[in-house]
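Hey everyone, long-time lurker, first post.

I ran two proteins through the pipeline my lab uses and got sequence/structure pairs for each. Pasting them in order. The first:
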Amino acid sequence: MGSYDAAVKVILSHCRQAALEYFLGLEVVESEVMELPQETASLRRSDFPIRVRTPEGRVFIVLLEVQSRWEPELPLRLLEYDVRYRLKTGLSVLPAILLLTPSGAVMDRFEDEGLRYAFRVISLAALEARELLRTGNPCLFPFVALMKGGVELFDEAERALTDSMPAGPDRADLLTGMALLSGLVSKELPQRLLRRRRDIMMESVAYEMIKKEGYDEGMQQGMLAEGREMVLEALAERFGPVPPDIEDLIMARESRRQLKELHRLALRVQNIDAFRKLLTSSL
């Protein structure tokens, strides 16, 4: 499973009912993600079969296919999954595609000779982020960045999610899902969220995906680069051009704590030779 599909799975594990009601307009009193049958090993993990029950007592399957982008073979692949679940369970199926990024080739039906197959397409890029925020449901806020006007509302949605949910793994998972999904539209948004909420997100079982995507590493490297630059600028401001040997030693530092200490020393030492002595003695 790709990280974006996995992010949606994390979000749905907490917010299935809210997502089904908002994106598909369903009234749901009970839902559960079904385990994939053993004989359907060929099914991709971006396929989410959800058994739902309505207030009227109707039971059926919502087959939600999560796609980061449109692919021409999607309708036939969805049809294959649809038929397998109908045969396996004897229940009717509502097929739907959750499209995470915009595409000009989207269709909601497939026709070829005697075959006609219709399905729902939820294109997040076509939905208004402000309307979703007005629901007041923090479960849905991780999708904001992918919606119309969502990049501008990202910080507002993140604050609302964080402030309206109690501390714990649910909040950590939703923030982690939010960071991963926002990576589809910006590399800066997930790193910005990490800078603010990293301690919370580390409680999430999905946090390893953040590190896998490199957002955490990217943020750390960015902080290290900034720390080295601050030390060099402080030395240059006080003593003029920084000698190459000292610059090389500073650039080799991989600890933010050490770089903070070196920055303090750079502001206090009497001359560059005193800094060099302290720098080499700390190696």
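...and the second, right after it:
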Amino acid sequence: MIHTANSQQIRDGLVTDVYFERTREILEAKGIDRVVTAEFLAKDFPKGYPWAVLAGMEECVALLKDLPVDVRVMREGTLIHPFQPVLEIRGKYLDFGRYETALLGFLCQASGVATMAARCRKAAGDLPLTSFGARRMHPAIAPMVERNAYIGGCDGVALGLGAKLVGVEPSGTMPHALILIMGDTVTATRAFHDIIAPHVKRVSLIDTYNDEKIEALNVAKALGKDLYAVRLDTPKSRRGDFRKIMEEVRWELDLRGFEHVKLFISGGLDEYRIQEYRDCADAFGVGTAISAAPVIDFSMDIVEVENKPLAKKGKRSGRKSVMRCEDCMETVVVPRGKSLNVCSCGGKMQELLTPLFSQGKLKMPLPPPREIRDHVINQLAGVEDL
């Protein structure tokens, strides 16, 4: 048995916390069903992140699209900060309340993955970045991980179904298994070159048996100009000073005329290690740091009941507008309807929460993954800190 819920079970409300089911049972028994406004926001981010990337909205839409509710959302891929509502639902509570668990699950995990991918993208600058983390997650959610790794800024993803979701070809090099089965690195690399389609870049994994610089030279001599890169995935137990290993490999390749061969590194990387190595590496493969990224801890809170501002202790009641300056990205949250057109810098303020549904009718199309990714990368240019 595979222990995951399918789409229909989620739509049927079978993956909701039991206290929401008990709430529904009580309200139905008492004949109470009031119009409420609920908002989704995060009070803080993991590890003191100064910003996060909003993701998971497409799955929220799939769940909400047939409900008689009004929905306002931030554009997927928007860089957000604490206490900024990213999703607002207005309608009768019994029409959507049971989906709180699922909606939060969509937003929290997808945004966590996209945020870590964006942090790695920021650290890598313009260098290629590939998601290798599918094997670290349950296979039923691996395509979701890959999609959000891509929209967060990865150039490629390794999983076939994940790549299909975002409209790119899957990316990958070769595993240690191929080298072990074929007997040595050069034989495996030549076989890869002979069999795999020419448009796939030839990247040889050089840390299976011998010293990395020796294996780099061996495969460079074997493939010549056809070798695009060598990949170092050296285990921590044998790594020593990883920078020195990369510097040695680079030196020996350049000394013998193989300046065209790039260095692709993977294995235990995160945004900080990418920053550390980006002056001596040409590309990065990131696995667990992205696929097992800490979630963005959103919550759903009612802020209006029957059009009257009302919220629990510690929350600000009433519907809100999230205004962002188009020039400096300064963002403020104000009561819905309050006029705020000009930023202190003189730039124009733009409302980030825009209508998506009105009584189940979609008011604007959802952007494709590539457009979301471009939106993320454009915003990253305006932030300095990780």
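Reply from user beta_strand_b:
Welcome! Quick read of the second one: The two ends are 41 Å apart (CA to CA). The longest helix spans residues 100-124.
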